Amino acid sequence: MDEVDSAIVHHLQLDGRLSNRALAEKLGIAPSTCLERTRLLHKRGIIQGYKAQVSLRALNRPVQAMAATQIRPLRRGVVAAFEKSVTGLPEVVPVYTMAGSDDFLVHVTAQDIDHLRAFLLDHFINRREIVGIRDPARD
User: Is 80 in the same domain as 121?
Assistant: First the structure.
């Protein structure tokens, strides 16, 4: 990657909807050059796709929590089932695998504290394989 490729990636990270013509203007290169370089960045796997950034407040889910979760027994099948069930919930934004005493860090959103508490009770605390859940911000 050279400076032009880095600049393309930088501008597309800031605004993934930037047109090729506007991107080329920002970089001071021909639109055809810009398009070819962007295509090559896709082909090389550097640019993997584009996503929409949404407002959790607009979705009526302004309350957020990070739930550090411990799973036992720590077996592939148990872990895979947990990951599948949690990532399919609309209240869960991302799920991170952790190293150390916690197995997962789950980013949860809710409309208010009462809904957050109910969500955690329904989907985490009552699960047999979850032996611990905590808020890492309180440590």
Answer: yes
For residue 79, give the nearest of 66, 88, 89, 69 by alpha carbon.
69
Question: Residues 71, 39: one domain?
Answer: no
For residue 109, list its beta bridge partners.
Answer: 64
The answer to whether the Cα torsion of 119, 54, 80, 65 is positive or negative is negative
The per-residue pLDDT for range 88-121, each reduced to its tens digit, is 999 999 999 999 889 999 999 999 999 999 999 9
Range of the domain at 39: 3-43
Q: What is the CATH number of the domain that holds 37?
A: 1.10.10.10
pTM of structure = 0.70
Determine the 3-state secondary structure of 4 from DSSP.
helix
Percent of the chain exceeding pLDDT 70 equals: 98
CB atoms inside a 10 Å sphere around CB 108: 21
Radius of gyration for the chain, computed over Cα atoms and rounded to the nearest angstrom: 21
Determine, yes or no, domain membership for 52. no
Report how many domains make up the chain.
2
Rounded CA-CA distance 99/107 in Å is: 16
